[in-house]
From TrEMBL:
Family (UniProt): Belongs to the 5-formyltetrahydrofolate cyclo-ligase family.
Pfam family, any one: 5-FTHF_cyc-lig
Gene source species: Arenimonas caeni
Xref: SUPFAM superfamilies: NagB/RpiA/CoA transferase-like
Record's protein name: 5-formyltetrahydrofolate cyclo-ligase
An MF annotation (GO) of this entry: metal ion binding
Gene Ontology terms describing biological process: folic acid-containing compound biosynthetic process; tetrahydrofolate interconversion
PANTHER family hit by this protein: 5-FORMYLTETRAHYDROFOLATE CYCLO-LIGASE (PTHR23407:SF1), ATPASE INHIBITOR/5-FORMYLTETRAHYDROFOLATE CYCLO-LIGASE (PTHR23407)
Matching InterPro entries: FTHF_cligase, FTHF_cligase-like_sf, NagB/RpiA_transferase-like
Positions contributing to ATP binding: 133-141
E.C. no: 6.3.3.2
Reaction(s) this enzyme catalyzes, per UniProt: (6S)-5-formyl-5,6,7,8-tetrahydrofolate + ATP = (6R)-5,10-methenyltetrahydrofolate + ADP + phosphate
Binding site for substrate: 56
């Protein structure tokens, strides 16, 4: 029997939680080097990252390797369950959102619409070889980047994950926004849309 989405989420979370500190550090470094080596990800502009929580692959090394003219941003939860983004540098003030995830503490007027990014690094629990993604279940990325279903990037949507987060073919829901590419410590997958 195929697992339900909640079962699959638990299984993938357990696999990610089982990684050692050393494996996490090595993977984070490998992913950062892999991303920095992709010329198509080096265009200047706003780059949407995430603040890693709950065993997600950390992005500190990615932030240190941004291309000239790239500005690191973090997501902010909106009341309508979408995301906006705001530039953030180490030392800038943060405030925890309802899930306890730190967000830049900025006035709403200085936040960016997702369409203003050149690149978004997308957190996920699971991915498959077709570029489908299983997230935490809030639908935040699907809602925020729904416009990418009708047009091409930028912003390019690049999933970031440990190789152990690969799942068998994920059934795509009508609202799912597919990834353009995905980086793990082992490989770079481009889905060619
Ligand atoms: N680091 C990071 N930031 C992110 C996301 C993410 O996946 N990772 N998001 C991507 O969408 C958004 C937040 N989305 C979330 C969606 C659902 C839950 C959630 O349901 N949490 C459960 C417990 C989950 C668990 O730990 O098992 C809860 O609080 O009850 C949390 C965050 C924006 N920021
Ligand atoms: N464009 C949209 N408009 C309205 N509702 C949406 C949209 N996209 C997703 N949703 C809703 O969000 C819910 C969660 O979707 P899903 O389980 O695919 O989230 P996810 O991709 O795992 O989460 P996240 O992006 O937060 O990591 C769904 O029940 C769906 O109804």
């Amino acid at each position: 029997m195929n697992p339900t989405r909640p079962e699959l989420r638990r299984e993938l979370q357990a696999r990610r939680a089982a990684l050692s500190a050393g494996e996490r550090l090595a993977a984070a470094d490998a992913v950062a080097r892999r991303l920095a080596a992709r010329p198509e990800l080096r265009a200047p502009g706003y780059v949407g990252g995430y603040w890693a929580v709950g065993g997600e692959l950390p992005l500190h090394s990615v932030q240190l390797r941004l291309a000239p003219g790239q500005v690191w941003c973090l997501p902010l939860l909106q009341p309508d369950k979408s995301l906006r983004f705001a530039p953030w540098r180490p030392g800038d003030p943060l405030v925890n959102n309802r899930y306890g995830i730190p967000e830049p503490e900025v006035a709403p007027s200085s936040t960016l619409d997702p369409a203003e990014l050149v690149l978004a690094l997308v957190p996920l629990l699971g991915f498959d070889r077709a570029g489908h993604r299983l997230g935490m279940g809030g639908g935040y990325y699907d809602r925020s980047f729904a416009f990418r279903r009708e047009r091409t990037g930028p912003p390019w949507l690049v999933g970031v994950a440990y190789a152990c987060q690969e799942a068998p073919a994920l059934a795509a829901e009508a609202w799912d926004v597919d990834l353009d590419a995905l980086a793990t410590e082992r490989e770079w997958l481009a889905f060619g849309r």
